[in-house]
Amino acid sequence: MSASATQTPVQDSGRVRLSLEFAGVILPIAKDEHGRDIVPLKPISDVFGLDWEKQRIKVNNGISRRLGTCTHLMVGGGQGREMTCIRLDRVAAYLNTINPEKVRAVGNEVGADFLERKQEEWDDLIHAYEMRSGMFATQAQREASARSRKVRDLLAVAKEKRNTQDQADRRVLGGLMKGLAADLGVPYQEELDA
Question: pTM for this one?
């Protein structure tokens, strides 16, 4: 199972329409009312052999807000059809709600194995993130992360100051640098006016 983005020409309008190949199924990508990319959910559900009606109910009643669920008129092959869609950037979240054992129970071993590998990968990534800077990070890790942000901020202000010719702006940026340097516990010498 793989996913890749492809561009497909729309024959009747001369425009280019994006679609996503997911496990051999081409999913059209549309925009929701907020301009976010969305894809129809039924074909994804069908790939895993899941009961569409149960999935539709789960998505509309349980996790609709999380997935950005909406109904959208999807056009393809000269026809339009109202479809339940989710945000493209939430497909992984939807897949994470599927029990691989239910997929295996309908005889889709490949799909079940794919889900298990992806869910384990996502769990490992979330754990690594939380250990590094999230709720499970040690105080020392959080402090190191905060210090790194302050160093990046100081360097960004220094670069901006070097590129600024206006003396008033340079003084303001110098004041910011002095404050950031003090937060970091490093010495800072203000620019001497010529």
Answer: 0.59
